Amino acid sequence: MSELFYDAAPNATRVAPPRPTERDYPDKPQEVILFGTCVVDLFFPEAGLDAIRLLEREGIRVQYPQAQSCCGQPAWTSGYADEARGVARAQLDILDAGIPVVVPSGSCAGMFRQHYRELFAEEPETLKRVESLEARTFELTEFLLKVCKVQWQDVGEPTRIALHTSCSARREMNTHLHARELLSTLSNVERINHDHESECCGFGGTFSVRMPEVSGAMVRDKTRSLMDTGADEMVTADGGCLLNINGSLDKQKQAFRGRHLASFLWERVSGEVKA
Amino acid sequence: MSARNNILNKLRSGLAGTTPRPDDFNERLVTEPWQYRPEDRIKRLRTLMEAVHTEVHQVDSQNWPEKVAEVLAERNLSNLLHAPATGHGKQLAEYWHSSGQSVDLLSYDRPIEEWKEELFWNVDASITGTRGAIAATGSLVMWPDRLEPRLMSLLPPLHIALLKASEIDDNLYAVMKRNNWSAGMPTNLLLVSGPSKTADIEQVLAFGAHGPKELIVLILEDA
Amino acid sequence: MNQRIPVTELTSSFRERATCALDDSQLRTNFRTAMDSLMQKRADAFPDEDERESLRELGNRIKARALSQLPDLLEQLEENLTANGVKVHWAETTEEANEIVHSIIEARQGTQVVKGKSMVSEEMEMNDYLADRGIECLESDMGEYIVQLDHEKPSHIIMPAIHKNRRQVSKLFHDKLGVDETDDVNELIQIGRRTLRRKFMEADVGVSGVNFAIAETGTLLLVENEGNGRMSTTAPPVHVAVTGIEKVVQNLRDVVPLLSLLTRSALGQPITTYVNMISSPRKPDELDGPEEVHLVLLDNGRSGAFADAQLRQTLNCIRCGACINHCPVYVRVGGHTYGEVYPGPIGKIITPHMVGLHKVPDHPSASSLCGACGDVCPVKIPIPEMLQRLRQENVKKPSEGSKVKDGGAKYSAKEKLVWRLWQTLNTSSLFYRLFLWGATRFRKLTPGNVGPWTENHTAPVPAKRSLHDLARDHLSGHGRSNGPTKGGQ
């Protein structure tokens, strides 16, 4: 079976996402832009900072344009294409500098890489700028693995974790493979598969508030299978999923939590343990 | 005819200014993964058909009627429906009479309307020929005709099918091409891959849903 | 088991029905078990990823080619079928299709109809239509039969009775057919066999669907495992096939990959027990088979989807059900929650064209857009993209006009305004940073109840300082805060 095959669970496997288009990775650049994403900005800012630290550790200068906001995804997936386009245009202007854009959230990276071209399909001039952005956009784990080719020494205590990847990011960019490979280089980290691993956590942006009953059933199943692994914590590189999963765990009064992958990785390589 | 015209007009206006896509059918994709060495074809066919509850025997092309008698005796069946005007029908009848078989040999030689009740309820087994088989999927190719009607392979609880070993093809595409199906299709052409089955209750597999409960394939090795 | 009220008969919304279904633990277990097994079977049926992907690509091209010349192929199909002796009828609406079927039955003074599995006849609600006119129309697929006996609708397009377990079927047979209860699935199937065999024998007309209609040869191809399809199309003196106009393919060879994709995606089978290709009625010297064969070609909104190049891809569908089996929403709410004939992802993208968005306003949004459906679709329909498009059509101002029937069904001036404000917030650096400032400064004031979100989550509390602030300080080399910044929960 191909490495792409996503072994969701012993009792329920789902096929791999379609093969990713082979991507040529550039040499490690001197400078990148971090696009923080609105969810990380407001709810997980420390993870964004940890992403900056991880990049700086590789000798890369990081820019954080203060004019950035949201990639436009919430409006886009809600059917408000005009509003999404307006917001997307603003981000395009900010990210036009021609240097790589690193995104610590899978689905937002996917928005740049896959959906801006749909938003601007009828604007040939803008489309050229979109193509440039597509080529320069990297999801954080992909960038660390494929562009920085990180060689880390794990200085953390032995730990067992479960990994969750955003469905769209997995499909659009195979983020699950990148995250797995990064985690496998950490000698004291044991990654445990969870039941129905490839199944959606139920977030889906506005889906979680439009269909709270179904979304709630999905996230409760997801949190149960995460906890059933007996892992110490869950890690994910997608802000939306993290907000959903942690919010549900808190509501259920569970001690188990998820953490942004950037923070987890920074802790493993820097030894800096935060409260 | 207004519905017809309305539908076609709507479709045509949807296609305004476009041209049909070219036919880029790539036959390699449906043949290459499904090719077998001649000696492996029977093996593959057997494996797949047995996996879906089919009994397969390799028999001599002269002596197969003996196997038929044996199969019926094992099951204690009282009659067998055959097609008297076919070559294999005649061969069977000859053996039946010369060996004094006690199992009634029934003939499908009149329109269904004349004996529907009997055909539906009182026939234990049937025997038909085939027009070959497909190794890739474990399927028999059946081409019912006026001598060997369609319901013969459907109504009796046991269906025995005769297959010539030399007529097993690798895949559906090969059968289709070799026999030039697209030049003229019969009233009814069938691929049969096992006895009738269903998994509609709890996905539990049960055989004999509406068609035969048992399928026996006799592969006739050419002398 | 109490008398169940079929969920579809209630006038309720998707959400209300979903809530009901989610509370039924037996139902959820039935679906989870069944879908897990179907997903596994499909995975096992495609052991070679390269083979699977190239076959899907081929399947997509074949359907795209057929659709790119659909009107011509329909005419070619009609011409060849007619030459073969099959009578072809056209229906724009389900009402017209029912009238056609009814008139065929009437011409034979028929009173009994047996039906092989046909989703199009479900679209038509043919059973009820004929029953109202004194004609018994009996389902003969085991799953469909069980569902019909219980006055329900199918909950899955391939496995209609998947929501029931054996005890429920046993009880049903006991109540309706007067047989002893049994836990033995084989015995239950044999009860069905005996009951339906008499019906096959007595029926005046057999009705079936069609999986592929081949223009080149004038052939109707049907796949099935049970033999009821062969029975319905062979035993009665008249066979009426009903199908959607999108089922036509150009050449006979086109069905080779499509057939393989269909049976492997649906049930993980290399092929179904029967592949039944019908090209003509009984010829003068033949001893069985129907004397008349009819084909009813139904539009029912399909030409509406066809009119738009993007939405047209919906018509690639070969009805395998793989998208349903892999859908994390379907597995939890089951088929009846969708309230229409086609459930799951395919139902969400095809139903609006048939019944209009007014009837299914929640269909486009009842998805997390996880994309599992698109990943497994054997003819590569970009289902998430279709859902996205339908969402746009759904919230449009009705006066703007829409390519989709009843577009704008979910238009709300208030919601539009909220997104306009959202746009303003996210396109103005000043407003956005003011918002961050406010949200972090007054984080303690975040209400504990923020609408539907707090049904499943605690309210999210903004961090003390935004990433904008942390990054600015960090990058300018005088980070004020080295301590933890608690965020989220």
CATH superfamily of the domain at 66-304 in chain C: NagB/RpiA/CoA transferase-like
The number of helical elements of chain B comes to 7
Whole-angstrom Rg of chain C: 26 Å
Number of strands of chain C: 10
SSE order of chain B, as H and E?
Answer: HHHEHEHEHEEEEEHEEEE
Q: Which CATH class of the domain at 66-304 in chain C?
A: Alpha Beta
**Could you report the average pLDDT of chain C, rounded to the nearest whole number?**
93
- By CATH, the topology of chain B is Rossmann fold
Greatest interface = B-C, 79 and 99 residues
Q: Could you say which structural class the secondary elements and strand pairing of chain C correspond to?
A: alpha/beta
Rg of chain B over CA atoms, rounded to whole Å, is 21 Å
Q: Return the structural class of chain B.
A: alpha/beta
Shape of chain B: globular
How many structural domains does the protein architecture of chain B include? 1
Give the number of helices of chain C. 22
In quaternary terms, these chains amount to: heterotrimer
Measured distance between first and last alpha carbons of chain C: 43 Å
Mean pLDDT of chain B: 96
**What is the fourth-level CATH superfamily of chain B?**
NagB/RpiA/CoA transferase-like
CATH-level-2 architecture of chain B: 3-Layer(aba) Sandwich
Main β-sheet description of chain B: 6 strands, parallel
Domain 4Fe-4S ferredoxin-type (chain C): 307-336
Keywords (chain C): 4Fe-4S, Electron transport, Iron, Iron-sulfur, Metal-binding, Repeat, Transport
Protein name (chain C): L-lactate dehydrogenase, Iron-sulfur cluster-binding subunit YkgF
Pfam family, one (chain C): Fer4_8
